[in-house]
UniProtKB/TrEMBL annotation, chain A:
Pfam families membership: PC_rep (PF01851), RPN1_C (PF18051), RPN1_RPN2_N (PF17781)
Protein family (similarity comment): Belongs to the proteasome subunit S2 family.
Keywords of this entry: Proteasome, Repeat, Ubl conjugation
Oligomer and partners: Component of the 19S regulatory particle (RP/PA700) base subcomplex of the 26S proteasome. The 26S proteasome is composed of a core protease (CP), known as the 20S proteasome, capped at one or both ends by the 19S regulatory particle (RP/PA700). The RP/PA700 complex is composed of at least 17 different subunits in two subcomplexes, the base and the lid, which form the portions proximal and distal to the 20S proteolytic core, respectively.
Segments forming domain 26S proteasome non-ATPase regulatory subunit RPN1 C-terminal: 834-887
Annotated segments matching region Disordered: 1-43
Name of the featured protein: 26S proteasome non-ATPase regulatory subunit 2 homolog
Superkingdom of source: Eukaryota
General function of this protein: Acts as a regulatory subunit of the 26 proteasome which is involved in the ATP-dependent degradation of ubiquitinated proteins.
Entry GO MF terms: enzyme regulator activity
UniProtKB/TrEMBL annotation, chain B:
Catalyses which reaction(s): Thiol-dependent hydrolysis of ester, thioester, amide, peptide and isopeptide bonds formed by the C-terminal Gly of ubiquitin (a 76-residue protein attached to proteins as an intracellular targeting signal)
Taxonomic classification: Eukaryota, Viridiplantae, Streptophyta, Embryophyta, Tracheophyta
InterPro entries per the UniProt record, alphabetical: Papain-like_cys_pep_sf (IPR038765), Peptidase_C19_UCH (IPR001394), Ubiquitin-like_dom (IPR000626), Ubiquitin-like_domsf (IPR029071), Ubiquitin_CS (IPR019954), UBP14-like (IPR044635), USP (IPR028889), USP_CS (IPR018200)
Enzyme Commission numbers on file: 3.4.19.12
Name under which the protein is recorded: Ubiquitin carboxyl-terminal hydrolase
Keyword Protease in annotation: yes
Keywords for this protein: Hydrolase, Protease, Thiol protease, Ubl conjugation pathway
Family designation: Belongs to the peptidase C19 family.
Amino acid sequence: MAPVPDPNSVAGGAKRDEATLKVPSKDPKKKDDKKEDDLSEEDLQLKQNLELYVERVQDPNPELQKAALESMRQEIRDATSSMTSVPKPLKFLRPHYGTLKEFHIKMADSDLKKMLADILSVLALTMSAEGERESLKYRLTGTEGDIGSWGHEYVRNLAGEIAEEYTMRQGEESSIEDLMELVRQIVSFHMKHNAETEAVDLLMDVEDLDLLLEHVDSTNFRRTCNYLTSAAKYLPGPDDMLVLDIAYMIYMKFAEYPNALQIALFLDNMQYVKQVFTSCSDLLKKKQFCYMIARHGITFELDQEMVANNDDKDALQDIVNNTKLGDGYLTLARDIEVMEAKTPEDIYKAHLIDGRASSGPSVDSARQNLSATFVNAFVNAGFGQDKLMTVPSDSTGSAGNWIFKNKDHGKISATASLGMIHLWDVDTGLSQLDKYLQVSDNSIVAGAVLGIGIVNCGIKNDCDPALALLGDYIDKEDSSVRIGAIMGLGIAHAGSQNDEIRNRLSPILNDAKAPLDVIAFAALSLGMIYVGSCNEEVAQSIIFALMDRSEAELDEALTRFLPLGLGLLYLGKQESVEATAEVSKTFNEKIRKYCDMTLLSCAYAGTGNVLKVQDLLAQCGEHLEKDDIHQGPAVIGLAMVAMSEELGLDMGIRSLERVLQYGEQNVRRAVPLALGLLCISNPKVTVMDTLSRLSHDTDSEVATAAIISLGLIGAGTNNARIAGMLRNLSSYYYKDASLLFCVRIAQGFVHMGKGLLTLSPFHSERLLLSPTALAGIVTLLHACLDMRSIILGKFHYVLYFIILAMQPRMMLTVDENLKPISVPVRVGQAVDVVGQAGRPKTITGFQTHSTPVLLAAGERAELATEKYIPLSPILEGFIILKENPDYREE
Amino acid sequence: MPTVSVKWQKKVFDGIEIDVSLPAYVFKAQLYDLTGVPPERQKIMVKGGLLKDDADWSAIGVKDGQKLMMMGTADEIVKAPEKAIIFAEDLPEEAQATNLGYSAGLVNLGNTCYMNSTLQCLKSVPELKSALSNYSLAARSNDVDQTSHMLTVATRELFGELDRSVNAVSPTQFWMVLRKKYPQFSQLQNGIHMQQDAEECWSQLLYTLSQSLKAPTTSEDPDAVKALFGVNLRSRLHCQESGEESSETESVYSLKCHISHEVNHLHEGLKHGLKGELEKTSPTLGRTALYLKESLIDSLPRYLTVQFVRFFWKRETNQKAKILRKVDYPLELDIFDLCSEDLRKKLEAPRQKLRDEEGKKLGLQTSAKSGSKDSDVKMTDAEASSNGGGESSTVNQQEGASSEKGTHMTGIYDLVAVLTHKGRSADSGHYVSWVKQESGKWIQYDDENPSMQREEDITKLSGGGDWHMAYIIMYKARFVSM
């Protein structure tokens, strides 16, 4: 097969080379014999030329040398433009690499030597031995000319060698000045050539990301930052913080404030948040920022510096305080037409169950009524109307008395469910709950105060009704009223770090007369209020409270809330926990390990720290002789640490499968809960199947945990498959009151807010983790570790902690006056576009809807019209739209 | 004087002046005028605290234009219901059992499923239960023998125990008494008790109960069991040879559904069962002659029992063989065309009434629908023959209509219990009962395991395979009040 020159080929030489190369490859033997003969005339010519150049380079005459070097450089440059195969000149020069190297050593310092070094540097690309870094070596002695002139592959290779060299020199602590100059060149080259990811990689290797700031421009900063933020998830601390810092600065540099704010929130750096406000002058944009802060669920006070005008400040503070959340949620509900209240029976759908349907009991069952109370509360959460609690009592007579259809402590949950139904609507909620405060029954008062806390969840108000009203009840005689008030404050003020409440609650912890349950809830509430604050004083109070507990008290199920409260203080704060973790080693051995595991898992929650995952896995793997309770929090901790990003999440699910197979019984019991946390409000089919299998486990505790977790993974999705599974479970367990109760609760979860809510603590495209939301979920899961004594006992109202995680899974567009407007949007599965070339589509398989729309897990929205410009690139929650001035009606 | 705005529920009251020199109570009185909430029920929130009645404004430091929030309603305070609500969890075990909606199962004592299923079916008749509960322990009348008395008491006790317990009951006592009374049930095979025919158990038990409950001392009702289950048949005997005709009445506890090749449906089987041939000494001929017997129902019971004659003695194999033929039966049975002329006349009016009521339910014009369908049914078979089944008795029964005044039989029956047999012969296989509860749910009693069933599955027990097939079924009369 004779090579036929391709007339269309521009780089004719290279193309033909490929053709000729293929021939000998068919027959290796032939290759050796006829190597010379196989070369085409042109190649032969080239080879001879190159050999001549090599000879001439060694010529003593500098003129001749220079001409030869220049010709050689020309040949190489022409060829390196394409990298589909090893360029011909490099190939032909291969035998002479050693000769040239030797000659280079012999040469006196001169421009010519530098020129030769340049050529050697390029030749080293293919010829230098692994780890020699000759390319770099010659580059450093070379002419320092335009680095890009030798092509991308050369630069890429060089970057790799620099990284290696850098680590070596770091070890030897020698200077890196010369390297950095080169780095600068390479970065600038990469940034200009759409290779931001490589530039970032190199800079991360040489630990000098600040350089990026000089090189980003308006065309590439987005891609750069995108890469930085997603890379941060896989970096060990404190590198991840540095990377995000840079991303923040880049966003600030290009006035991309919403993104900057996002990162500031991720870093939990209030200084940065403030800076975003002070740097931005657009009031409308600030409103958008406020919506973002409100979604994150942190307490944030605006000051004069951030907003000059007082009225504007009030308006912004209103948004931060979430006062409009309820209205937005109802707008969504009206648009989707789900305002009609649902009864528990609508959820159970008993008529769909084969034969086994419960035979309409003639007598009220306290258990079943309690589950109906919860289901009703979850399903109608935030709608302000239902068919059990809010119906006027005089219409039919019986309906208004639903509270009294619950027994003893059941009345607490029943009354508190009013708070859930009026969630986010403080005014109506308070007036509804008011009358129950006057009742003589302590359980109902306890429920009413808890309800007041619930209705204020996530909403802040100048008058602070929660504190004003509940303050008086903290020190009441009856412990259920006290618990109601304490828990209510914990829910209403989660994350607020309110010192006044601390001053009220801390004394309870160290009050020798206070009963254990009150102390447990006080510790938990303090943990919620100071979540992620690392507050020393609170930590001290809880530690003392733990130390004061007697042996017998340490065996109580509720004691676990003390270490949990302590853990919440350090939620996501990583190393800050260490001092406290040391102290915990002095605790009574009964609680020591539980405390250890809780602290560790809370501190590293949402970090994806692989080392901690391994630590926790090791704990789960132990086969203990006696039943120890610390493995439960270790399993949950595994999920807490691993839940931060998709890869870690999948790995977590797989590890849990193993744990399930090899773990001891008390480990197995926690596995469903961990799965529930990993996929919360994200019904992955594989996890669903695992949980469905476990829900029939012979160990009833595994089954209860699996059932609750089925509810958690389907929470707020109305997922028909899970709903079907639960219906079947309700008939399967129709005789077992406890399991049936769990099935009912799970059904309530799945239909939470009639499918408009999510429990996922992650938001803003899964970047941000709301600490209060996670605190709520984790508390519920810890309570589920001892289901029998807590949720199935008389502390079922801990289920209401889940309220902290409840958020509408919506995208609601509002105009410049914050009035809802309907615009077309495309909603589809989000695509990971980080580091991809060009302008890839960010969503796939989309459908077009008009806002407001629901967003499921893993979905992303984009505007389907050019008429408006969204003020935030992350289309979730409330989005302010501005009219596009350039838009023209077609 | 600072002016403040007060937010109450969804309303905002702007520009309320506060006289700082007066105590806060005065301010509350102002708000009372605006909202109608009495001052003692008002909770006014000022920066994380409540406003006390005697609070000093200067200490609070209220600012001009400050926003206050008020909580409170003038609504009546919620009161607990007069009658405390009783929860199932608080009830004693027996009450929880009733709450479950069905009673417990019976433990199999070794091939006693025939007995268990019979008992479960009979237990579903509330009238029988009440008759039993009236039966006194001590007073045994003289015409009831000792064993019958014991069996009756044992039945009573067992039914009571079943109602009280949640878990399966072991009928040991009853079984012993039953074997004492009817030694045929003690047959052993390889040292264990043999499977028996449920029909035999059923009829023997009912017979005993009818005897003991008939005793005049027990209740005002002379024969409770007969009133519940007895079917009066008026038979016409016709001898073809001599042409002579005679008629007789008899009372049976169950109708037979004979299964032949033409029978596909219960109705056909029943018709078939009411006709028969028998040999009888003819007074005119002075020798035995073949008589045709044709029976018609003369009075209707409250509970109509139908036995599928599935077992017959196969001479070739010397064993009771089973007919597996599928015979459908309806959930709602109308036996109008099996009734005698007299009875039909009596049924006309109640049936019309029932149809009217149903028509009303469906929203149809009732007058348009006359009973044409039923009048089409003709009783063409004139010959009379005798039916050999059941304990005959010539006691004249009271009317088919119930003793309760104002309610009348309609000739329409609803299925309430099915006793099924699974297996190839009467002495083997497994008996199970399927009983409809008062709640309308069907429960399958498979010895100690009760389980819920769907109504449409009940009609699938009609045979034709190796699945459970109906052996004895029981219908409950539908009444109409006039």
